[in-house]
Every structure is written in structure tokens, then in C-alpha cells.
Amino acid sequence: MKKLLITLVLALIGVAASGQTVYSCDYKSEAQVKVYVTKYKSEADLVVYKADYKSEADANKGIWYFVKYKSEAKKKIYFVDYKSEADLVIYFADYKSEAGWRNNSKKHLMF
């Protein structure tokens, strides 16, 4: 029982420590989350910084690394054309320090 508990705790730590790797799907039906990109930071649920390296990606803090293959991604997203279609509204920031949640009620979408 103790070994099972330790294994479970280590697995959860591994999941929590993994970076926010994202794959942009070609089809809406493949995606876990539909995302709309806004031009205004004030409209965003999440301010996202696109990381250049996978090691920079941070677990659900708005620092995303876009992977080349679907199997590498923690989350599969689809970019929609209209805000009304979206589960999540994001704004792409120029600086890593700007990244973060503005609407905590939507945080569960990227876990």
C-alpha cells in the first residue's frame, strides 16, 4: 500500500512539473480546447507567451511551447475565428513576464 501511495505521489508531481506543451490542431474535432486570440490584453482569459524552447514552458502559467507532433502535446487546441466559439480567449504577449491567468475560472481548461 505504501509503495502504491509513493508511486501515485511521484506520478502527480511529474504531471504538475511538466511544461505547457501545446499542439495546434487542423480540425476543431481533434481539439481539447477551442481558443480565440484577441488583440486586447484586457479581453483575455489568459495572457500567453510563446516559448522558444520546451524547457521554458511552465505548467499552466501561460508559457506555451508549441510542439510539432500531437503525441508530444499536453493540450491540443484549435484556433477559432470568432470569440463566441471559444472556450478560452488568449492574448499573445511579447514578454515572458506578462504571461498569466486573468480569469482563474477557466484555469481547468489547460490542466
Q: How many domain units?
A: 1
Summarize the helix and strand pattern as letters.
Answer: HEEEEEEE
Strand order of the largest sheet: 1-4-3-6-2-5
- First-last Cα distance: 28 Å
**Percent range for helical residues?**
10-25%
Strand-helix topology:
Elements: H1 2-17, E1 20-24, E2 33-37, E3 46-50, E4 63-66, E5 75-79, E6 88-92, E7 100-101
Parallel strand pairs: 1-4, 1-5, 2-5, 2-6, 3-4, 3-6
Antiparallel strand pairs: 3-7
What's the short version?
The protein has 1 helix and 7 strands. The chain is an alpha/beta fold and 111 residues long. It has a 6-stranded parallel barrel with strand order 1-4-3-6-2-5.
Report what the structure shows.
The protein has 111 residues and is α/β, with parallel strands linked by helices. It has one domain (2-110). The protein is 14% helix and 28% strand. The chain is built from one helix and seven strands; from the N terminus they run H-E-E-E-E-E-E-E. A six-stranded parallel barrel has the order 1-4-3-6-2-5. The radius of gyration is 15 Å and the shape is globular.
Task: Provide key terms for this protein.
single chain, 111 residues, alpha/beta, six-stranded parallel beta barrel, 1 helix, globular
